[in-house]
Amino acid sequence: MNQESLPPHVLIFPLPLQGPVNSTFKLAELLCFSGLDITFLLTENIHNRLISHTNISSRFERFPGFQIKTISDGLPQDHPRKGSKYMELFDSLKSKTKPLFKDMLTSGWLSSDGKRREVSCIIADGVLGFTCDVANEIGIPIFSIRTISPCCLWIFFCLPQLIESGEYPFKGDDLDEPIKSVPGAETFLRRRDLPDFCRTGDLTDSNVQLYKTEGQENSRAYGLILNTFEELDGHLLSQMRNVCPNIYSIGPLHAHLKNKLSEENNSLPPSSNSLFEEDKSCINWLNNQLPNSVIYVSFGSIATMTKEQLMEFWYGLVNSKQRFLWVIRLDSVAGDDWKNKIPVELAEGTKERGYIVGWAPQEEVLAHPSVGGFWTHCGWNSILESVYEGKPMICWPYFMDQQVNSRFVEAAWKLGLDMKDTCDREIVEKMVKDLMVVRKDEFLERANQMSKFAKECLKEGGSSYCNFERLVNDIKSLSDKVRHH
Fold it and tell me: Membrane spanning segments where (predicted)?
């Protein structure tokens, strides 16, 4: 086939973690619908996990221009790739994966079947700076995608100013001290709301070293793709455009894709890219509950807690007398012995008003009319799903962008309560009652309003709809330039 007549060929390289991979798959599917050829690049480790838990291989069968390829992350197979070992992944990607990536792009291997062009454009996670080095070296246009929240990314962009102004590292240990060097958040940001690694106060910390160059790194790409929408984050996006002038806010991505699937009259449900087995029995349980009566509790795919924390949460939930659906992952509590020592009052309270599963189909749960609130670890995908479905939140952040997100939920967007740094049954009980009973109407009204904005922005003429069209057009015109080089 004549190369000239083939569509642009985009290589997508997400950060190898569940959240980023999940969002980026949704973007890939949207781009496939726009007629682009996609090579989706996964590390071998993530690919193996996806193959065993999801329908990802059959998911893209209707797109002949889609292919998954794998690359080594350079770590031994038994490396945990999370927790304290997480930063080793970045070092390894930079030193071991970078040359493999360059070779993959220059060898012609990705287009050797003749069915697709050579790669004419790259979309890579903005934290993988080496992809930008390679793209610029070989003359392929690159877009950065960031799947964390814009509010956290903006703090990364501001880290150099925080250091310069003397606000970071902290002097003294008052975590409620206000932070003034983050434009757009001067009125409500506190030390405790910065990403958790800022608490070490160590400028040589590998996280600080990695993230303080974010502003420079992300501005090297042609544009920055963000999973948010103007009505939620507009005030911050206008600040961020001072660093990265060309921003494509195209979220909420999960809903953007759902809309596209229904336009295409597609009977396939949106893909589950979950790395865990989902327990659908909880939907039957929800079907028997009253509207807005259940608080859904899930701390995502990575967060872990101690047995003591588990017990405080559990007592708080049971004592609040509210109905709850709680996801407790097999690996989320240190040690297994808690299962054999459940106090009688908790077992009975749970039997009466609660339901516990190992993993839940979250989008379906949040869309359920019985769910009236979401107690979350504040991962960005979870927040957007909650915002879209109009569910107020209680926030118990675990790490990274979650500390920032939880503050924005309460102080900037007024969509819930920030419970960070506390784990006490009385506080849990009070917050659950506040969200589900005392301030229920106030929170639901605000959440419904934001949900309406989230739905409007995806309709024809809406902000995310138009930004996505612009992204596709820009990919096409940049790809044409590469072709004529």
Answer: none
Same domain flag for 291 and 415 = yes
Rg (CA), the chain: 22
Give the residue-averaged pLDDT of 366-387: 96
Judge if 24 and 117 occupy the same domain: yes
Global confidence as pTM: 0.94
Q: Which of 2-6, 450-454, 479-483 has the weakest average pLDDT?
A: 2-6
Task: Centre a 10 Å sphere on the Cβ of residue 462 and count the other Cβ atoms it contains.
Answer: 18
230 and 332 inside one domain: no
- Inside any domain, residue 98: yes
The model's pLDDT over 409-444, given as tens digits with 9 standing for 90+, comes to: 999 999 999 999 999 999 999 999 999 999 999 999
pLDDT tens digit sequence for 309-354: 999 999 999 999 999 999 998 888 887 777 888 899 999 999 999 9
Mean pLDDT, rounded, for 122-151: 96
**Pair 85, 118 in one domain:** yes
324 & 375 share domain: yes
Structural domain count, the chain: 2
Q: Is 393 found in the same domain as 363? A: yes
424 and 384 within one domain: yes
| CATH number where 409 lies | 3.40.50.2000
